[in-house]
User: Fold this.
Amino acid sequence: MSEFSRRRFLALSGGAGTALALAACGGTSKAPQAAPAGGNGGASYSGPNVTISFWNGWTGSDGETAQAMVDQFNKANPNVQVKMNVFQWADFFTKLPAAVQSGNGPDVAAMHIDDMPTQAAQQVIVPLDDIASALGLKESDFAPAVWNGGVYQGKRYGIPIDVHNLGLYYNKTVMEKAGLDPNKPPTTKDEYMSQLDTLKSKGIQGSWVSPFQFTGGFQFESLLWQFGGDVFSSDNATATWNSDAGVQALTWMVDLVKNGYSPKNVGQDADYIALKNGRNVFNWQGIWQVNDVTALKTYEIGTAPLPKIGSTGGVWGNSHQFVLPRKKDNDANKANASRFFINWFTQQAAAWAKSAKVPARNDLAQSADFKALTSLQSFAADVQYTHFPPSVAGIGDALAQLYTGVQSAVLLKQDPAAALTSAADKANKILADNKKKYGA
Assistant:
Protein backbone atom coordinates (compact mmCIF):
# COMPACT_ATOMS: atom_id res chain seq x y z
CA MET A 1 0.00 0.00 0.00
CA SER A 2 2.25 2.72 -1.24
CA GLU A 3 -0.29 5.47 -1.68
CA PHE A 4 -0.25 8.38 0.78
CA SER A 5 -4.00 8.85 0.25
CA ARG A 6 -4.60 5.26 1.31
CA ARG A 7 -3.03 5.92 4.68
CA ARG A 8 -4.96 9.09 5.29
CA PHE A 9 -8.26 7.40 4.54
CA LEU A 10 -7.30 4.49 6.75
CA ALA A 11 -6.89 7.00 9.55
CA LEU A 12 -10.48 8.03 9.04
CA SER A 13 -11.86 4.54 8.87
CA GLY A 14 -11.60 3.66 12.51
CA GLY A 15 -12.70 6.43 14.89
CA ALA A 16 -15.33 9.05 14.95
CA GLY A 17 -15.93 8.88 11.21
CA THR A 18 -17.20 5.32 11.45
CA ALA A 19 -19.40 5.96 14.43
CA LEU A 20 -20.92 9.08 12.93
CA ALA A 21 -21.66 7.34 9.66
CA LEU A 22 -23.44 4.54 11.48
CA ALA A 23 -25.35 6.92 13.68
CA ALA A 24 -26.49 8.87 10.65
CA CYS A 25 -27.95 5.67 9.22
CA GLY A 26 -29.75 4.97 12.48
CA GLY A 27 -28.12 1.57 12.85
CA THR A 28 -30.06 -1.46 11.66
CA SER A 29 -33.33 -2.84 12.88
CA LYS A 30 -32.82 -6.57 12.41
CA ALA A 31 -30.71 -8.79 14.62
CA PRO A 32 -27.54 -10.12 12.99
CA GLN A 33 -27.91 -13.53 11.48
CA ALA A 34 -25.68 -16.05 9.80
CA ALA A 35 -26.24 -17.18 6.23
CA PRO A 36 -29.15 -19.50 5.45
CA ALA A 37 -28.66 -23.11 6.46
CA GLY A 38 -26.86 -25.36 4.01
CA GLY A 39 -23.59 -25.22 2.16
CA ASN A 40 -20.22 -26.28 3.46
CA GLY A 41 -18.78 -23.06 4.80
CA GLY A 42 -16.95 -22.27 1.59
CA ALA A 43 -15.06 -25.51 1.06
CA SER A 44 -16.59 -25.69 -2.43
CA TYR A 45 -19.53 -24.39 -4.47
CA SER A 46 -21.63 -26.44 -6.88
CA GLY A 47 -24.82 -24.36 -7.07
CA PRO A 48 -26.29 -22.42 -9.97
CA ASN A 49 -24.57 -19.47 -11.58
CA VAL A 50 -24.46 -16.42 -9.30
CA THR A 51 -22.85 -12.98 -9.27
CA ILE A 52 -21.65 -11.70 -5.90
CA SER A 53 -20.53 -8.19 -5.01
CA PHE A 54 -17.31 -7.54 -3.08
CA TRP A 55 -16.59 -4.18 -1.42
CA ASN A 56 -13.32 -2.94 0.01
CA GLY A 57 -11.23 0.20 0.47
CA TRP A 58 -8.13 -0.94 -1.39
CA THR A 59 -7.51 2.17 -3.45
CA GLY A 60 -3.75 1.68 -3.90
CA SER A 61 -1.66 -1.05 -5.47
CA ASP A 62 -3.45 -3.55 -3.26
CA GLY A 63 -6.65 -2.78 -5.16
CA GLU A 64 -4.92 -3.58 -8.43
CA THR A 65 -3.67 -6.83 -6.93
CA ALA A 66 -7.13 -7.71 -5.62
CA GLN A 67 -8.74 -7.06 -9.00
CA ALA A 68 -6.23 -9.31 -10.72
CA MET A 69 -7.03 -12.02 -8.17
CA VAL A 70 -10.77 -11.54 -8.70
CA ASP A 71 -10.25 -11.86 -12.46
CA GLN A 72 -8.34 -15.08 -11.88
CA PHE A 73 -11.12 -16.41 -9.63
CA ASN A 74 -13.81 -15.52 -12.15
CA LYS A 75 -11.94 -17.29 -14.95
CA ALA A 76 -11.46 -20.43 -12.87
CA ASN A 77 -15.03 -20.47 -11.49
CA PRO A 78 -17.53 -19.53 -14.20
CA ASN A 79 -20.48 -20.38 -11.95
CA VAL A 80 -19.42 -17.70 -9.41
CA GLN A 81 -18.64 -14.25 -10.79
CA VAL A 82 -17.33 -11.63 -8.38
CA LYS A 83 -17.84 -7.92 -9.05
CA MET A 84 -15.46 -5.80 -6.97
CA ASN A 85 -16.21 -2.22 -5.93
CA VAL A 86 -13.49 -0.09 -4.36
CA PHE A 87 -14.14 3.00 -2.23
CA GLN A 88 -11.99 5.35 -0.22
CA TRP A 89 -12.19 4.01 3.33
CA ALA A 90 -14.01 7.11 4.56
CA ASP A 91 -16.69 6.62 1.89
CA PHE A 92 -16.77 2.87 2.49
CA PHE A 93 -17.94 3.34 6.07
CA THR A 94 -20.63 5.78 4.98
CA LYS A 95 -21.95 3.67 2.14
CA LEU A 96 -21.82 0.21 3.74
CA PRO A 97 -24.27 0.75 6.66
CA ALA A 98 -26.68 2.64 4.41
CA ALA A 99 -26.55 -0.08 1.76
CA VAL A 100 -27.12 -2.83 4.32
CA GLN A 101 -30.02 -0.91 5.83
CA SER A 102 -31.68 -0.54 2.43
CA GLY A 103 -31.13 -4.17 1.49
CA ASN A 104 -28.57 -3.36 -1.17
CA GLY A 105 -25.39 -4.23 0.69
CA PRO A 106 -22.58 -6.29 -0.83
CA ASP A 107 -22.30 -10.04 -0.41
CA VAL A 108 -18.70 -9.86 0.83
CA ALA A 109 -16.52 -7.08 2.22
CA ALA A 110 -13.06 -6.60 3.68
CA MET A 111 -12.16 -4.27 6.54
CA HIS A 112 -9.66 -3.79 9.35
CA ILE A 113 -9.70 -5.45 12.74
CA ASP A 114 -10.50 -2.22 14.56
CA ASP A 115 -13.54 -1.52 12.35
CA MET A 116 -15.27 -4.87 12.79
CA PRO A 117 -16.52 -4.53 16.39
CA THR A 118 -18.37 -1.31 15.62
CA GLN A 119 -19.89 -2.81 12.48
CA ALA A 120 -20.89 -5.92 14.45
CA ALA A 121 -22.42 -3.87 17.27
CA GLN A 122 -24.43 -1.91 14.71
CA GLN A 123 -25.54 -5.20 13.10
CA VAL A 124 -24.03 -4.30 9.75
CA ILE A 125 -22.06 -7.59 9.55
CA VAL A 126 -23.03 -11.09 10.66
CA PRO A 127 -21.16 -13.90 12.42
CA LEU A 128 -19.32 -16.36 10.18
CA ASP A 129 -18.20 -19.04 12.61
CA ASP A 130 -19.44 -21.62 10.09
CA ILE A 131 -16.68 -20.70 7.66
CA ALA A 132 -13.94 -21.12 10.24
CA SER A 133 -15.49 -24.39 11.41
CA ALA A 134 -16.04 -25.88 7.95
CA LEU A 135 -12.52 -24.99 6.83
CA GLY A 136 -11.01 -26.31 10.04
CA LEU A 137 -9.40 -22.98 10.93
CA LYS A 138 -8.10 -22.68 14.47
CA GLU A 139 -6.11 -20.25 16.59
CA SER A 140 -2.88 -22.18 16.20
CA ASP A 141 -3.05 -21.49 12.45
CA PHE A 142 -2.54 -17.78 13.07
CA ALA A 143 -0.76 -15.31 15.30
CA PRO A 144 -3.05 -15.15 18.37
CA ALA A 145 -3.68 -11.42 18.04
CA VAL A 146 -4.81 -11.83 14.41
CA TRP A 147 -7.16 -14.69 15.24
CA ASN A 148 -8.65 -13.10 18.34
CA GLY A 149 -9.05 -9.78 16.56
CA GLY A 150 -11.78 -11.30 14.40
CA VAL A 151 -13.93 -12.18 17.43
CA TYR A 152 -16.47 -9.82 18.97
CA GLN A 153 -18.50 -10.78 22.05
CA GLY A 154 -17.73 -14.45 21.61
CA LYS A 155 -18.62 -14.70 17.91
CA ARG A 156 -16.33 -14.68 14.90
CA TYR A 157 -17.00 -11.87 12.46
CA GLY A 158 -13.75 -11.88 10.49
CA ILE A 159 -11.67 -14.36 8.50
CA PRO A 160 -8.06 -13.07 8.55
CA ILE A 161 -6.44 -12.19 5.24
CA ASP A 162 -3.15 -10.56 6.17
CA VAL A 163 -1.01 -8.69 8.66
CA HIS A 164 0.33 -5.23 7.88
CA ASN A 165 2.71 -3.95 10.52
CA LEU A 166 5.39 -1.39 11.23
CA GLY A 167 9.05 -1.95 10.45
CA LEU A 168 12.34 -0.08 10.21
CA TYR A 169 13.22 1.42 6.84
CA TYR A 170 16.80 2.63 6.54
CA ASN A 171 18.69 4.48 3.82
CA LYS A 172 21.64 2.20 3.11
CA THR A 173 23.23 4.68 0.70
CA VAL A 174 23.42 7.49 3.27
CA MET A 175 24.56 5.10 6.00
CA GLU A 176 27.51 3.99 3.89
CA LYS A 177 28.46 7.57 3.00
CA ALA A 178 28.43 8.40 6.73
CA GLY A 179 30.80 5.54 7.51
CA LEU A 180 28.19 3.13 8.88
CA ASP A 181 27.77 -0.47 7.78
CA PRO A 182 24.72 -0.41 5.47
CA ASN A 183 24.08 -4.07 6.20
CA LYS A 184 23.87 -3.62 9.95
CA PRO A 185 20.82 -1.54 10.88
CA PRO A 186 20.41 -0.90 14.61
CA THR A 187 18.68 -3.57 16.67
CA THR A 188 18.97 -2.07 20.18
CA LYS A 189 18.64 1.33 21.82
CA ASP A 190 22.41 1.66 22.23
CA GLU A 191 23.04 0.79 18.59
CA TYR A 192 20.30 3.17 17.46
CA MET A 193 21.65 6.11 19.43
CA SER A 194 25.26 5.38 18.47
CA GLN A 195 24.40 5.40 14.79
CA LEU A 196 22.34 8.56 15.22
CA ASP A 197 25.33 10.25 16.85
CA THR A 198 27.51 9.26 13.90
CA LEU A 199 24.96 10.66 11.48
CA LYS A 200 24.58 13.84 13.52
CA SER A 201 28.34 14.37 13.40
CA LYS A 202 27.97 14.38 9.61
CA GLY A 203 25.18 16.95 9.76
CA ILE A 204 22.37 14.42 9.22
CA GLN A 205 19.23 14.30 11.34
CA GLY A 206 18.77 10.57 11.15
CA SER A 207 15.44 9.73 12.80
CA TRP A 208 12.61 12.12 11.98
CA VAL A 209 9.72 11.93 14.42
CA SER A 210 6.26 12.36 12.94
CA PRO A 211 3.64 14.07 15.13
CA PHE A 212 0.87 12.37 13.14
CA GLN A 213 -0.87 9.03 13.56
CA PHE A 214 0.90 7.89 10.38
CA THR A 215 3.43 7.02 11.61
CA GLY A 216 4.37 8.78 14.84
CA GLY A 217 1.32 7.48 16.66
CA PHE A 218 2.13 3.94 15.60
CA GLN A 219 5.75 4.43 16.62
CA PHE A 220 4.61 5.47 20.09
CA GLU A 221 2.36 2.42 20.46
CA SER A 222 5.24 0.16 19.44
CA LEU A 223 7.52 1.79 22.01
CA LEU A 224 4.81 1.62 24.67
CA TRP A 225 4.67 -2.17 24.31
CA GLN A 226 8.46 -2.37 24.18
CA PHE A 227 8.67 -0.59 27.52
CA GLY A 228 6.19 -3.06 29.01
CA GLY A 229 3.02 -0.96 28.87
CA ASP A 230 -0.27 -1.31 27.06
CA VAL A 231 -2.78 1.00 25.41
CA PHE A 232 -5.78 -0.07 27.49
CA SER A 233 -6.50 -2.00 30.66
CA SER A 234 -7.19 -5.73 30.40
CA ASP A 235 -10.95 -5.10 30.36
CA ASN A 236 -10.53 -2.26 27.81
CA ALA A 237 -12.40 0.09 30.13
CA THR A 238 -9.51 2.47 30.81
CA ALA A 239 -6.74 4.05 28.77
CA THR A 240 -3.37 3.10 30.28
CA TRP A 241 -0.99 4.76 27.83
CA ASN A 242 -0.10 7.39 30.47
CA SER A 243 1.67 4.76 32.58
CA ASP A 244 5.38 5.01 33.39
CA ALA A 245 6.01 2.89 30.29
CA GLY A 246 4.06 5.35 28.15
CA VAL A 247 5.92 8.33 29.56
CA GLN A 248 9.26 6.61 28.90
CA ALA A 249 8.23 5.81 25.34
CA LEU A 250 7.03 9.29 24.48
CA THR A 251 9.94 10.94 26.26
CA TRP A 252 12.34 8.94 24.09
CA MET A 253 10.56 10.20 20.95
CA VAL A 254 10.46 13.80 22.17
CA ASP A 255 14.14 13.70 23.12
CA LEU A 256 14.99 12.81 19.53
CA VAL A 257 13.47 16.16 18.60
CA LYS A 258 14.93 18.11 21.50
CA ASN A 259 18.43 16.74 20.93
CA GLY A 260 18.49 17.44 17.22
CA TYR A 261 18.20 13.92 15.83
CA SER A 262 14.90 14.99 14.25
CA PRO A 263 13.68 18.35 12.94
CA LYS A 264 10.85 20.03 14.80
CA ASN A 265 7.35 20.23 13.32
CA VAL A 266 7.74 17.37 10.85
CA GLY A 267 4.90 17.53 8.32
CA GLN A 268 2.59 14.70 7.34
CA ASP A 269 4.64 12.10 5.42
CA ALA A 270 7.73 14.36 5.53
CA ASP A 271 9.63 11.72 7.51
CA TYR A 272 9.10 9.17 4.73
CA ILE A 273 9.77 11.61 1.90
CA ALA A 274 13.02 12.62 3.61
CA LEU A 275 14.04 8.96 3.83
CA LYS A 276 13.64 8.64 0.06
CA ASN A 277 15.58 11.81 -0.74
CA GLY A 278 18.48 11.08 1.61
CA ARG A 279 17.75 13.61 4.35
CA ASN A 280 16.42 11.01 6.83
CA VAL A 281 18.01 7.62 7.49
CA PHE A 282 15.74 5.67 9.89
CA ASN A 283 11.98 5.68 9.41
CA TRP A 284 9.48 3.66 11.49
CA GLN A 285 7.11 2.98 8.64
CA GLY A 286 4.42 0.55 7.54
CA ILE A 287 4.87 -2.46 5.29
CA TRP A 288 2.71 -0.71 2.69
CA GLN A 289 5.70 1.33 1.48
CA VAL A 290 7.84 -1.69 0.54
CA ASN A 291 6.96 -1.67 -3.15
CA ASP A 292 7.47 2.08 -3.31
CA VAL A 293 11.03 2.04 -1.93
CA THR A 294 11.94 -0.97 -4.02
CA ALA A 295 11.36 1.10 -7.14
CA LEU A 296 13.76 3.87 -6.07
CA LYS A 297 16.79 4.48 -8.30
CA THR A 298 18.77 7.15 -6.42
CA TYR A 299 18.94 5.57 -2.97
CA GLU A 300 18.90 2.01 -1.72
CA ILE A 301 16.43 1.51 1.11
CA GLY A 302 16.60 -1.55 3.35
CA THR A 303 13.98 -2.95 5.71
CA ALA A 304 14.53 -4.58 9.10
CA PRO A 305 12.62 -5.52 12.25
CA LEU A 306 11.96 -2.62 14.60
CA PRO A 307 14.86 -2.03 16.99
CA LYS A 308 14.13 -2.93 20.61
CA ILE A 309 14.38 0.43 22.34
CA GLY A 310 12.71 -1.03 25.42
CA SER A 311 13.21 -4.40 27.07
CA THR A 312 10.99 -6.49 24.79
CA GLY A 313 9.56 -6.67 21.30
CA GLY A 314 6.63 -4.46 20.44
CA VAL A 315 5.21 -3.59 17.02
CA TRP A 316 2.05 -1.81 15.91
CA GLY A 317 0.00 -3.73 13.38
CA ASN A 318 -3.41 -4.28 11.85
CA SER A 319 -5.09 -6.91 9.72
CA HIS A 320 -7.52 -6.98 6.82
CA GLN A 321 -10.26 -9.54 7.36
CA PHE A 322 -13.18 -10.76 5.29
CA VAL A 323 -16.66 -10.03 6.66
CA LEU A 324 -20.19 -10.84 5.57
CA PRO A 325 -22.62 -7.90 5.53
CA ARG A 326 -26.15 -8.66 6.69
CA LYS A 327 -28.46 -9.53 3.80
CA LYS A 328 -32.24 -9.27 3.71
CA ASP A 329 -32.79 -11.60 0.77
CA ASN A 330 -31.17 -14.63 2.47
CA ASP A 331 -30.09 -16.06 -0.89
CA ALA A 332 -28.48 -19.36 0.11
CA ASN A 333 -26.61 -19.73 -3.18
CA LYS A 334 -25.02 -16.29 -2.95
CA ALA A 335 -24.22 -16.88 0.71
CA ASN A 336 -22.44 -20.14 -0.04
CA ALA A 337 -20.68 -18.71 -3.10
CA SER A 338 -19.47 -15.82 -0.98
CA ARG A 339 -17.95 -18.23 1.51
CA PHE A 340 -16.30 -20.12 -1.34
CA PHE A 341 -14.73 -16.90 -2.63
CA ILE A 342 -13.42 -16.04 0.85
CA ASN A 343 -11.85 -19.47 1.16
CA TRP A 344 -10.24 -19.21 -2.29
CA PHE A 345 -8.86 -15.71 -1.75
CA THR A 346 -7.26 -16.46 1.60
CA GLN A 347 -5.39 -19.40 0.03
CA GLN A 348 -3.70 -17.14 -2.54
CA ALA A 349 -1.06 -15.93 -0.09
CA ALA A 350 1.76 -15.37 -2.55
CA ALA A 351 -0.38 -13.30 -4.91
CA TRP A 352 -1.82 -11.09 -2.18
CA ALA A 353 1.55 -10.70 -0.43
CA LYS A 354 2.92 -8.99 -3.54
CA SER A 355 0.82 -5.97 -2.60
CA ALA A 356 3.07 -5.77 0.51
CA LYS A 357 1.32 -7.90 3.13
CA VAL A 358 2.25 -10.80 5.40
CA PRO A 359 -0.15 -13.75 5.04
CA ALA A 360 -2.30 -14.16 8.13
CA ARG A 361 -1.96 -17.93 8.20
CA ASN A 362 1.29 -19.25 9.66
CA ASP A 363 1.69 -22.02 7.08
CA LEU A 364 1.27 -19.60 4.21
CA ALA A 365 3.73 -17.15 5.78
CA GLN A 366 6.22 -20.04 5.91
CA SER A 367 5.64 -21.08 2.30
CA ALA A 368 8.42 -20.97 -0.27
CA ASP A 369 6.42 -18.59 -2.45
CA PHE A 370 6.16 -16.03 0.33
CA LYS A 371 9.73 -16.47 1.49
CA ALA A 372 10.82 -15.60 -2.04
CA LEU A 373 9.54 -12.06 -1.35
CA THR A 374 12.68 -11.10 0.55
CA SER A 375 11.71 -7.48 1.23
CA LEU A 376 8.79 -8.66 3.38
CA GLN A 377 10.65 -11.12 5.59
CA SER A 378 11.63 -8.63 8.29
CA PHE A 379 7.95 -7.72 8.72
CA ALA A 380 7.02 -11.38 8.91
CA ALA A 381 9.65 -11.88 11.60
CA ASP A 382 8.01 -9.14 13.67
CA VAL A 383 4.49 -10.60 13.55
CA GLN A 384 5.28 -12.44 16.79
CA TYR A 385 5.70 -9.06 18.50
CA THR A 386 2.79 -7.34 16.78
CA HIS A 387 -0.15 -5.99 18.76
CA PHE A 388 -3.57 -5.19 17.28
CA PRO A 389 -6.35 -2.84 18.33
CA PRO A 390 -8.70 -4.47 20.88
CA SER A 391 -12.04 -5.86 19.76
CA VAL A 392 -14.19 -3.10 21.23
CA ALA A 393 -16.92 -1.17 19.44
CA GLY A 394 -15.97 2.45 18.89
CA ILE A 395 -12.35 1.90 19.97
CA GLY A 396 -11.12 4.23 17.23
CA ASP A 397 -12.77 7.17 19.00
CA ALA A 398 -10.59 6.57 22.05
CA LEU A 399 -7.44 5.95 20.04
CA ALA A 400 -7.94 9.28 18.29
CA GLN A 401 -7.28 10.95 21.65
CA LEU A 402 -4.00 9.04 21.98
CA TYR A 403 -2.78 10.30 18.64
CA THR A 404 -3.72 13.86 19.60
CA GLY A 405 -1.73 13.53 22.83
CA VAL A 406 1.33 12.16 21.04
CA GLN A 407 1.14 15.02 18.55
CA SER A 408 1.03 17.63 21.29
CA ALA A 409 4.16 16.24 22.93
CA VAL A 410 6.14 15.73 19.72
CA LEU A 411 5.36 19.31 18.70
CA LEU A 412 6.73 20.34 22.13
CA LYS A 413 3.43 21.91 23.19
CA GLN A 414 3.11 19.70 26.31
CA ASP A 415 5.50 17.51 28.24
CA PRO A 416 4.95 13.78 27.60
CA ALA A 417 3.34 12.95 30.96
CA ALA A 418 0.85 15.82 30.77
CA ALA A 419 -0.02 15.13 27.14
CA LEU A 420 -0.64 11.43 27.75
CA THR A 421 -2.69 12.01 30.91
CA SER A 422 -4.88 14.62 29.27
CA ALA A 423 -5.46 12.29 26.33
CA ALA A 424 -6.23 9.35 28.64
CA ASP A 425 -8.79 11.36 30.62
CA LYS A 426 -10.66 12.24 27.43
CA ALA A 427 -10.44 8.67 26.17
CA ASN A 428 -11.83 7.27 29.43
CA LYS A 429 -14.96 9.35 29.03
CA ILE A 430 -15.32 8.12 25.45
CA LEU A 431 -14.86 4.50 26.54
CA ALA A 432 -17.58 4.89 29.18
CA ASP A 433 -19.93 6.59 26.72
CA ASN A 434 -19.30 3.93 24.09
CA LYS A 435 -20.03 1.16 26.57
CA LYS A 436 -23.49 2.65 27.02
CA LYS A 437 -23.90 3.35 23.33
CA TYR A 438 -22.89 -0.06 22.01
CA GLY A 439 -23.51 -2.26 25.03
CA ALA A 440 -20.97 -4.03 27.22
